[in-house]
Amino acid sequence: MKTKTVMASLTVAIGFAAIGTYATLTYAGVNAEGVPAKPAATAAAASDPESSARINVKALAANLEFLVEKPVLASHPLLIEFWATWCPPCRASIAHLNDLAKKYHANGLQIVGIADEDKAVVENFRDRTPMGYAVALDSNQTLAAAFGVQAIPQAWLLDKEGRVVWSGHPMELDDQIITGVLAVNPTE
Predict the structure, then answer these.
(1) CA 57, 58, 61, 62 torsion: positive or negative?
(2) Which three-class secondary structure state does DSSP give residue 94?
(3) Among the CATH numbers 3.40.140.10, 3.40.30.10, 3.90.550.10, 2.40.50.100, which is that of 39-182?
(4) What pLDDT does 157 receive?
(5) Which end of the chain is more exposed for a tag (fewer CB within 10 A), N or C?
(6) pLDDT averaged over the chain?
(7) Exposure of 182 by Cβ count < 10 A (0-12 exposed, 13-18 middle, 19+ buried)?
(8) Quick check: 151 pLDDT over 70?
(9) How far is it, in rounded angstroms, from Cα 143 to Cα 152?
(10) What is the C-alpha to C-alpha distance for residues 150 and 30, in angstroms, rounded to an integer?
């Protein structure tokens, strides 16, 4: 969605989590042309990773512009988060994602924060706010549309085969879920 469309179609919603309340900003659920969004990826956590459809993130990510070195996406567990610089709940989740990156990167977890804003805006934000994980731009909202993103921040955890094993507010993602995907202990 274009910035004007996003700003005009946002409403504030409160997401309730088992460990607390997290604010999210919710999209109106339509794409840039006004057509209702139809997600290609499930937004619900898959209780059985074997039953979850595989997502070819490498192919979907072909349209992403990485601000620094592109991480290895194939054959690695992947946490993707859709966020924006102007989104207070997104800003609040950065410290949590930094902690996850620090703990699990050595075990193969790749984290990518995806924004649909102007490159200069995101780079300026990153200059002031350290982000210890990859950041990419989804200028055409290709990946956001494929995942049916309707609220930010919103995250998906995929196993190394590309199956969605969890999705939700990034602050709800805990060590138990991640270690289950990695099948290793976190790096201390």
Answers:
(1) negative
(2) helix
(3) 3.40.30.10
(4) 95
(5) C
(6) 75
(7) middle
(8) yes
(9) 14
(10) 8
**What does the chain come to in residues?**
188
70 DSSP assignment: P
At 130, the amino acid letter reads P
**Secondary structure letter of residue 54 according to DSSP:** B
For the beta sheet containing 154-158, the strands, ordered from the edge strand earlier in sequence to the opposite edge, are: 65-66, 134-137, 110-115, 78-82, 154-158, 164-168
Task: List 157's β-bridge partners, or say none.
Answer: 79, 166
DSSP 118-151: -HHHHHHHHHHS---SEEEE-TT-HHHHHHT--E
pLDDT tens-digit map of 70-127: 888 888 899 999 999 999 999 999 999 999 999 999 999 999 999 999 999 999 999 9
Which residue do the tokens 């997600």 mark?
Answer: 39
3-state helix, strand, coil in the chain (%, to 5): 35, 25, 40
Extract the tokens encoding 110: 């790749």
- Euclidean distance between CA atoms 46 and 66, whole angstroms: 28
Which residues lie across from 167 on neighbouring strands? 156
Which tokens sit at 16? 């309730």
User: How many Cβ atoms are within 10 Å of 118's Cβ, its own excluded?
Assistant: 13
Domain spans of the chain?
39-182
